[in-house]
Design a protein that fits this description.
By secondary structure, the protein is an all-alpha fold. It has 21 helices and no strands. It has 2 domains: 256 residues, MetI-like fold, CATH 1.10.3720; 203 residues, MetI-like fold (Orthogonal Bundle), CATH 1.10.3720.
Length: 498
């Protein structure tokens, strides 16, 4: 019997991390509510398919206004978020800036929208800020990392007398400018999806009409709206030209100017009264704060965190399985040009459809349980990871006598792609948890369910605590993901890709 200790290699760490995530996902599936609450989901699916095969583009009132609002909110939100994020990125070395950016981007656009609705109502400013605030945190992180990773040699070559402004604009900004433009264009695609689903909380975007059509069973009208959203996003590269961006911004501002419609007194009351915990407002002091927080933990925070973790971990496991199954659809190492073309279309549709919208449609078909949320998150995120993994496979060169079929997949391709696949999965983990929390607005009992309920009851002190709980959860998952990627020596390159 050998006493030689097992080697702690990078490959062994990949295996242990994968096994740990798989076990956590299996445990989550065992705890999840997967009940099919609809007696005949097949009949509902048939009705939906009929609507998608015969879309009705002419019976939705205010359709073009909703599309214009969707575009206006997205353009203004991205512009404001990019400017704010760029300014924060120049201060990225400060810990407080990094912490603040992490906190604001951990709160979903829909949660920001729910809060801002109380201050400015169903206005353009509410929609713009709901996108701009979290995007400022996202832009700050990405642009800050671009600046940190930029080659310092050009800056060192400048004369010692050159000022900080000259050094930035002549030696640092040119190195990251292309990356900033590319990422901003991608973020606009995300903003179009975010702007659309803001309609689910009442803002006048495409999502408002989508929700109405699907809830009323008007699947032909809902399909038309969804097709228009797809066309808008999928043709983005055709109509988004740098020289046209100023014109688009001017048009967005002219169509939907972001005016402050609320009153200053409302904001002051919201911050100084509504957000203050009830025991402090009622004069009970700190002595009453403990029991209040304890009751809130038992009734809402604890159950919400647990359900969010269960749904998120189950979705993470199914995401990994679907990504591993779907990436060959896009890879040139498998299939022919026709099959890859069809696979590309499938992946584009799945990753273009917002998770929130997918979950909403699946809830109508399958009924209120965790199953629609798990499927929606896994289909959307699995398509993203499959797309990225398939793209990476284009750089692989196999021997002329390499195996075919399943052996090629298992022994030739997957081992070489697995580090990239695992890096993508861990990066998307925090995003899955962020989306899981917001699915509660649809009625699934994650943290978003309790947040939406507290807003409906005008108990904004509870809303604030519950949102802080989602921030803490997302930051914890993000920190664990970053630690695992570092521990497993996984590259962070291209992780922000769509």
């Amino acid at each position: 019997m050998s006493d030689t200790p097992a080697l702690d290699t990078t490959a062994s760490r990949w295996r242990r991390a994968s096994a740990g995530l798989a076990l956590a996902g299996l445990a989550a599936f065992l705890c999840a509510d997967l009940e099919l609450a609809r007696p005949s989901p097949g009949a509902e699916l048939a009705k939906m398919l009929g609507g998608f095969l015969a879309p009705d583009f002419f019976h939705t009132d205010g359709l073009w206004q909703a599309l214009a609002n969707t575009l206006a909110f997205a353009f203004q939100g991205v512009a404001l978020g990019a400017v704010a994020g760029f300014l924060l990125a120049m201060l990225w070395r400060h810990r407080t800036v990094r912490a603040g950016a992490a906190a604001v981007r951990a709160i979903h656009e829909l949660f920001w929208g729910l809060l801002l609705l109380q201050l400015n109502g169903l206005s353009t400013l509410t929609g713009v800020l709901a996108i701009a605030i979290p995007y400022a945190g996202i832009f700050a992180k990405v642009f800050g990392e671009f600046l940190e990773e930029a080659d310092p040699a050009p800056e060192r070559s400048l004369p010692a007398a050159a000022g900080a402004t000259s050094r930035f604009f002549y030696a640092r900004l040119p190195l990251i400018w292309h990356g900033c433009k590319t990422y901003t264009a991608y973020r606009l695609e995300c903003a179009l999806r975010a702007s659309a689903i803001l309609g689910f909380i009442g803002l006048p975007t495409v999502g408002f009409h989508l929700e109405t059509a699907f809830r009323e069973g008007l699947y032909d009208q809902g399909a038309a709206l969804l097709y228009l959203l797809f066309i808008l996003i999928l043709t983005l590269r055709l109509w988004l030209r740098p020289w046209l961006v100023p014109a688009y911004l001017v048009a967005a501002l002219a169509w939907a100017p972001p005016l402050l419609e609320g009153r200053w007194a409302t904001l002051v009351r919201f911050v100084t009264v509504d957000l203050v915990p009830a025991p402090l407002r009622q004069g009970q002091g700190l002595a009453g704060l403990g029991p209040w927080l304890s009751g809130l933990w038992i009734e809402q925070i604890g159950p919400g965190l647990w359900q969010t973790l269960v749904l998120g971990m189950a979705a993470l496991l199914l995401t990994a399985i679907l990504a591993l199954l779907m990436f060959p659809l896009l890879s040139p190492l498998f299939g022919n040009r026709l099959s890859r073309g069809l696979g590309h279309v499938l992946l584009v549709v799945l990753r273009t459809t917002p998770e929130f919208l997918l979950a909403f449609v699946l809830l109508i078909m399958l009924g209120p349980s965790m199953l629609p949320g798990i499927l929606a998150l896994a289909l959307h995120t699995g398509a993203i990871i499959a797309h990225l993994t398939g793209r990476f496979s284009e750089g692989l060169t196999l021997r002329a006598d390499a195996a075919r079929g399943l052996n090629r997949y298992a022994y030739e391709v997957l081992p070489r792609l697995y580090p990239n696949f695992l890096a993508f999965l861990l990066y998307r983990w925090e995003i899955i948890m962020r989306e899981t929390a917001v699915l509660g607005i649809l009625g699934i009992h994650t943290l978003g369910f309790y947040i939406d309920s507290s807003v409906s009851e005008f108990r904004f002190d509870r809303t604030l605590v519950l949102i802080l709980a989602t921030v803490a959860l997302n930051l914890a998952v993000d920190a664990l993901s970053r630690w695992l990627r570092g521990r497993l020596r996984l590259s962070n390159g291209s992780l922000a890709a769509p």
